[in-house]
Amino acid sequence: MPFQLGTDSSDRPEHAERVEVPVEVGDVVLLATDGVWDNMFEDEIKNMVEEIDVPQEVANRLAEKAIRIGRSEGQPTPFSMRAEEQGLFHPGGKLDDVTVVVAYVSE
User: Fold this and answer.
1) Which of 25, 36, 57, 92 is geometrically suited to a Cys-Cys bond with 72, CB 3.0 to 4.6 A?
2) Tell me: the pLDDT tens digits for 26-70?
3) d(CA 80, CA 102)
4) What secondary structure letter does DSSP report for 18?
């Protein structure tokens, strides 16, 4: 289960997993909440990162698209496909919190 911070949650920030990932100049670092990953396929995200060269613009466009897809009622999404694999019917998007941070690694 993912950690859930909020009023009624016993999860605390100190429970978060810390991960170190080596990066190189030219890498793109993208952090996003499940509102993005549940609604957008990795290829869609990758294409947008490759097409736009301003980190803030990438973050804004990803967030806007994830929200738009989250409101859709029939568009296939990673979430709807996983639901179907479990025998559940959930067509379209899954409206959820959407946060995106994009950074380009430079010297």
Assistant:
1) 92
2) 999 999 999 999 999 999 999 999 999 999 999 999 999 999 999
3) 26
4) -
